Amino acid sequence: MAFPQLLVGKVAAITGGLTGIGRAIALDYIRHGAKVSISHLGGEKETPQLEALRQEVSSIDPEASTRFTTVAGDISQPETGKTFVAKTVEAFGRLDIFVSNAGVCQFAEFLEYIPHFDPIQSILTNPSLEPSLLNHTISTNLTGAFYATQAAARQMALVQSPPGGSIIGVSSISALVGGGQQTHYTPTKAGVLSLMQSTACALGKYGIRCNALLPGTIRTQLNEEDMKDPVKREYMEGRIPLGRLGQPRDLAGPAVFLACEELSGYVTGAQLLVDGGLFVNLQ
């Protein structure tokens, strides 16, 4: 049985769309008929990851590859968001859906500070929380999200006609709870949640809806090494009522819901937890 396509004719841009959650959302948007642009780190040169993604896009339907494009750039740089939006509009004519997904996460101990690099410390699983790690986390997860969201909103509100659209910020369950080795990370995800709440207030008059997705523990490249520890993985699975860690595809359906005007046209300023029940089971 074929499911209806919910995003036919819509144009979506997704930061960090090459891997993990962003990749899963991009593929589902393609399946639902959208034209999709993703941003990714690195240069314009084709890589095995890019090639694999293009092949998966092409496998969806014969015309899918014509509805897909990629833009290289480092989202931590303020100009990258503007360039990404401009190239998306150049390729597809407008912008209806923007997903601010790009992010980094590296565990680090709050009190361990090493002013000068010590080669011996490089073998530690959890590095020290040096200024460079803090600054990179903030500039990627929060500052980059701010400027990219602002660029998307300007296009949706002031350039195209009629105005309107859906902006989705990928936050985290970490926006709601603490983490001893995430003191530099959790504030950025709380910031993304707050950004979506405030932009919902600022952009509602333009018909732009802004919502946050809050993934729980999702198996992506960001935590792959951490989840290789069977003891830690079993512990995490035991805390989740649904009994398993999340997969990137678990975020794709909720992202389609928030993007689709027919399904979520009166939803803005909201936070949608996608965590298998972890938050309500925290003890």
TrEMBL record:
| Electron transport is among the record's keywords | no
Record has NADP as a keyword: yes
Quote the Gene3D superfamilies the UniProt record gives: NAD(P)-binding Rossmann-like Domain (3.40.50.720)
Task: Name a single GO biological process.
Answer: rhamnose catabolic process
Q: Which GO terms describe its molecular function?
A: oxidoreductase activity, acting on the CH-OH group of donors, NAD or NADP as acceptor; quinone binding
What Pfam families does UniProt report for this protein, alphabetically? adh_short_C2 (PF13561)
Which keywords belong to this entry? Answer: NADP, Oxidoreductase, Rhamnose metabolism
Q: Which family does it belong to?
A: Belongs to the short-chain dehydrogenases/reductases (SDR) family.
From the Swiss-Prot or TrEMBL record, give the protein name.
Short-chain dehydrogenase/reductase SDR
Q: Which organism is it from?
A: Penicillium bovifimosum
Lineage runs: Eukaryota, Fungi, Dikarya, Ascomycota, Pezizomycotina
